[in-house]
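Quick one: structure for this chain?
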Amino acid sequence: MLAAFPCVYGAAMAASSDAGVAEEVTERVLLADPGGDSGVLVERAVLLAVRTSPDAALAPMRAQEREVIALARLAGATTTRIAAVLALEPKAVRALMTSGLRAVVNRDGAPRTPPPPPGCGSAASPRHAARAS
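Got it. Here's what it folds into:
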């Protein structure tokens, strides 16, 4: 149990950025399965921490997106492993990863690349730029 403590606590802290939450999560996870595999314990800690009090970087995401991204980034889980842990299809996991990352990129709701003003051409599309003239 003590051997897994640093990994479990570190994962919980990264998922929540709140020392109190990380301590509580670590205690719950380690007491529930004292001899468990450290990788599985880390996954449980990450999920419990993001469900309890997610880090600000994960906050713009919906709950399932947070869980998928946190398992991938903080626990190092593969798409296949995330699908097994969350009882999802791998295709759904990939879609949640994409939408979760987009939520972070577009926190303020603005598109990443604003459209050109009306009447202006676009350098990305010279063919259409000629029509705008």
